[in-house]
């Protein structure tokens, strides 16, 4: 059996970008339909999972943005349900917990006098004898912080997250991700924190040092459920349990025919004048007809995957952190979320804790392919090793896998994405790519939303008046508004880019000064 409908704009994917576009178009009176693969949850990686009334976030999503338009839209969609939460996090290393950002006196005490002195000497040596023209993440961080601090606070966690050596990751990622936070600033900030001195924050404050954030009281999925409900109230449609099978472009009549199937195998067909896609580029290009010439380039794009083991313990979490970074190489877990510290409403029962053990992996590798019960046992052992909860206090658990959580930037990434972009814009003029996976860009949810907001402006104008590919982490739309979008800072938020083998310098010994 086949079901056929018609709409002006079809949106593939019900994540932040897709639902932002759907809401804004429906609000303007346009006929719009969103198809979402998941049968239950909206929000994509920004969804909130409900397990026996315990709520948890996939990766942790602070609501902070430099864009006034994005913040205003959050408030418009969810006007009464934001709470302000303290930003508290620590680093676990060598059996000890370190405040993050740094508290200078605490770090001095816990590292020990000799180790701390070695860190200072290592930093001083790096400043007087830097690696010239650093090409790798290792070299760049060593120049900024010294070899000893690199090995303690950067190496293990970074390699857990991205699955490659810090000597293979490009220096440009480090320069962007750690921009605005050098050792002098961190020490000065740490001294004021250690002495209890309140700091003034302004737009120049490094994001890493921000002390509070906004958060929906029942998790980020609350935002996207509300967006879908309001979109539908304006006449839009949200269709769950729809897996895209094909997207055919009729160039003569300028119309799309998109087919999808549900879990029962029923085929659904939607015709549309515009298609907005937040689906992974490799999946979109595989579904397009006529077949795009750039399909081989799309197939070269790689992703880092992610899974969460949510542990429910019959004892309250006796630590206030939102999350803890695990820099200790003796365990596989990369980060631990404390969901009650994100919002008390995430944990429905007093006397219980819900902790998210986060593991970074590649789809199909040993971690990803492990049975749920084996992952739960691993998480219980590791939470006990870290000392946050006793394994015997864990009374329940579940595993959630997230495919294609992070786009990977390897040597060929930029050329492959550019080939796809040029090809699709030339041959499919009413196809619009938005969001993290839709554009293969490591964007936060506010940046994904901005790509959708500008795309909506393009559709309403009947032409591409904004280049959505300019949206990036540091773009400040607050003062200039949408009209200033293309004047925003052009540097994009970077994920690790693999350094070409011929550019590798010899790796430094971790024992180097």
């Amino acid at each position: 059996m086949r079901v056929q409908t018609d709409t002006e704009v079809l949106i593939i994917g019900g994540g932040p970008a897709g639902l932002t576009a759907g809401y804004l178009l429906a609000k303007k009176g346009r006929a719009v339909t969103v198809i979402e693969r998941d049968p239950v949850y909206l929000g994509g990686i920004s969804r909130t999972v409900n397990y026996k009334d315990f709520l948890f976030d996939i990766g942790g999503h602070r609501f902070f943005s430099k864009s006034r338009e994005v913040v205003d839209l959050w408030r418009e969609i969810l006007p009464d349900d934001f709470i302000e939460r303290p930003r508290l996090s620590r680093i676990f290393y060598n059996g000890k917990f370190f405040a993050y950002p740094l508290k200078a006196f605490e770090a001095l005490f816990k590292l020990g006098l000799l180790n701390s002195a070695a860190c200072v000497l290592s930093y001083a040596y790096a400043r007087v004898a830097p690696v010239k023209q650093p090409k790798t993440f290792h070299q760049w961080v060593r120049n900024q912080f010294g070899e000893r601090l690199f090995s303690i606070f950067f190496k293990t966690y970074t390699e857990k997250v991205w699955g490659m050596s810090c000597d293979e990751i490009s220096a440009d990622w480090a320069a962007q991700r750690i921009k605005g936070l050098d050792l002098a600033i961190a020490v000065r900030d740490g001294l004021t924190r250690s002495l209890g001195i309140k700091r003034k924050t302004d737009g120049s404050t490094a994001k890493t040092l921000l002390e509070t954030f906004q958060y929906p009281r029942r998790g980020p999925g609350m935002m996207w459920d509300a967006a879908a409900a309001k979109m539908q109230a304006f006449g839009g449609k949200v269709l769950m349990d729809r897996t895209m099978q094909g997207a055919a472009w009729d160039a003569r009549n300028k119309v799309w025919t998109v087919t999808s199937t549900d879990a029962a195998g029923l085929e659904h067909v939607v015709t549309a004048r515009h298609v907005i896609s937040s689906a992974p580029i490799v999946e979109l290009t595989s579904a397009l007809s006529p077949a795009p010439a750039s399909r081989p380039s799309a197939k070269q794009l790689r992703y880092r995957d992610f899974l969460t083991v949510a542990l429910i313990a019959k004892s309250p979490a006796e630590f206030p952190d939102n999350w803890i970074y695990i820099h200790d190489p003796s365990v596989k877990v990369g980060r631990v979320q404390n969901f009650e510290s994100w919002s008390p409403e995430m944990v429905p029962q007093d006397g219980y804790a819900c902790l998210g053990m986060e593991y970074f992996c590649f789809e199909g590798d040993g971690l990803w392919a492990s049975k749920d019960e084996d992952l739960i046992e691993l998480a219980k052992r590791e939470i006990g090793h870290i000392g946050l909860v006793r394994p015997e206090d864990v009374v329940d658990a579940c595993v959630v896998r997230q495919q294609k959580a992070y786009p990977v930037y390897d040597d060929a990434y930029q050329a492959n994405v550019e080939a796809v972009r040029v090809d699709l814009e030339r041959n499919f003029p009413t196809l619009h790519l938005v969001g993290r996976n839709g554009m293969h860009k490591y964007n936060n949810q506010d940046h994904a939303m901005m790509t959708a907001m500008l795309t909506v402006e393009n559709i309403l104008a009947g032409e591409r008046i904004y280049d959505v590919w300019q949206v990036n982490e540091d773009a400040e739309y607050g003062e200039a508004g949408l009209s200033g979008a293309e004047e925003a800072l052009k540097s994009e938020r970077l994920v690790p880019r693999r350094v070409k083998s011929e550019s590798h310098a010899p790796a430094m010994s971790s024992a180097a000064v």
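The mean pLDDT is 86. The two ends are 70 Å apart (CA to CA).
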